[in-house]
Amino acid sequence: MKLRNRHKSFDGWVEFYEHDSRATQSPMRFSLYRPPGSEKHPVLYWLSGLTCTEENFTQKSGIQRYLAKYKIACVAMDTTPRNLNLPNETATWELGAGAGYYVNATQEPWAKHYRMYDYVAHELPELISSEFNIDGSRQGIFGHSMGGHGALMIGLRNPENYRSISAFAPICAPSQSPRSQRAFQAYLGADTRTWQEYDTCALLAQVQTRLPILIDQGEDDEFKDAFLQPGLLKAAAFKNDYPIEFRFHPGYDHSYYFVASFIENHIAFHARFLS
Amino acid sequence: MKLRNRHKSFDGWVEFYEHDSRATQSPMRFSLYRPPGSEKHPVLYWLSGLTCTEENFTQKSGIQRYLAKYKIACVAMDTTPRNLNLPNETATWELGAGAGYYVNATQEPWAKHYRMYDYVAHELPELISSEFNIDGSRQGIFGHSMGGHGALMIGLRNPENYRSISAFAPICAPSQSPRSQRAFQAYLGADTRTWQEYDTCALLAQVQTRLPILIDQGEDDEFKDAFLQPGLLKAAAFKNDYPIEFRFHPGYDHSYYFVASFIENHIAFHARFLS
């Protein structure tokens, strides 16, 4: 594992790493915020949206202030492997590089490397807990847009590994939105039954352990109705009697300005379960 | 003036504008944060460093939270005109586009358009005060690196227009550092006497009205000794009996992670004089 660079931030450290991933059979990059203090800190995993690398959230969310205050570490990983020279790897922003959807692909040309589910749910937390002074028994997971989908989906499928889940403007039902359907078909194939294990609305009907969930959604989000479909998740939560704190904010859009405006609430929410 | 886009942020608005500038004879871009509330707000002018546009600070500083809290508007302008097809306009990051040094150039090919001093000190504040619900009698100025130089220099030369000045890791003596000397020579010519009106250390010996000044500097800033030269400014302040609050921070570098870590202190500092 290689430390690419680091910056002091609110008396802690923002660090950028690269390592060879077993899951994706490729180099992968992530950022880590380490709060001040030598004690073992709990950790939040942040999953970013389409097109993002490990840098966008780290630079734009303003989260470091709150991580330092609440004494929580935070890992933000790149959204896919990069520079693999796969066909159409960078042809559109909705498939391939930057658009891994946090699934284990089964279809060519993606099946070998696009295994972001295994990477985020298993390999990365094991690496972080073993390499850093971080308490892997106190983990939370959160994300934005495609990463909100990833956080909800991975959290619901692995409740023993996390204490809390939150999301900003998540893609709530990827198997039901035409835009994410195209990616699911490319990664997982035409049999839509296999899609359900990566679909938050479908998973809600199956989960036994109910982690606390907080979701923030901008009312003026340009992707809300056609892509994110929060109404489907609200309905699924109601139907399955799963309590989700769902907050809608007039005037806010899909950008990091929206994320930054409410990031402290998310840290405070997770801190209730992690600290 | 054209509104390019806007984003709700901490109950206020981040807005990006473009307009045709009289001073630079070109389109210019800036961002404006408008805090919540319908009253006339005081305003801070932010001057960015080399290579930056109006976006870097707006996206990375985390300032909006504090502007909303202290009820202060903030304008961040691009660092030069762009896309003028001048010779060597984009050949290096230390001259031309993104590197205007906030001077009025007198040498070709820069003399017609590179008039950032007039733009920042005069045209832009007049535009902002006339077009927006902003109190132009309560202005502060601040910036980072090349923009810290700009803020100190413009503030010292126009004390009647501002109430307070602050800077992060400013270029303190551009006429004495080889890197900024190259730019000053290109913009202002070989007669170094003309450089002095744009040099903070030189200006300190002349000012009558003493605005309050706060400066933060990272001890591990990679540009500190050879380029920024804070020691020269400390010595000039001492010699001229000008009280500057100069704070040095172990471990911090030149990045926006450093700026973000101390931005609240700067807003609180300016608020004492603006609110």
Largest β-sheet summary of chain A: 9 strands, mixed
Which fold name is given in CATH as the topology of chain A? Answer: Rossmann fold
Q: What would you report as the Rg of chain A, rounded to the nearest angstrom? A: 17 Å
The CATH class of chain A is identified as Alpha Beta
Largest interface by Cβ-Cβ < 8 Å: A-B, 23 and 23 residues
CATH architecture of chain A: 3-Layer(aba) Sandwich
Helix-strand topology string of chain A: EEEEHHEHEHEHHEHHEH
Mean of residue pLDDT values of chain A: 97
Q: What oligomeric arrangement do these chains adopt? A: homodimer
- Globally, the shape of chain A reads globular
Which regions of chain A contain 5 or more consecutive residues with pLDDT less than 50? none
- Number of self-contained structural domains of chain A: 1
Distance between the termini of chain A: 28 Å
Compute the number of helices of chain A.
Answer: 9
Q: Give the tally of β-strands of chain A.
A: 9
- Beta fraction of chain A: 15-25%
Structural class by secondary-structure content of chain A = alpha/beta
Spatial order of the strands forming the largest sheet of chain A: 1-2-3-5-4-6-7-8-9
Helix content of chain A: 25-40%
Question: Quick one: CATH superfamily of chain A?
Answer: Alpha/Beta hydrolase fold, catalytic domain
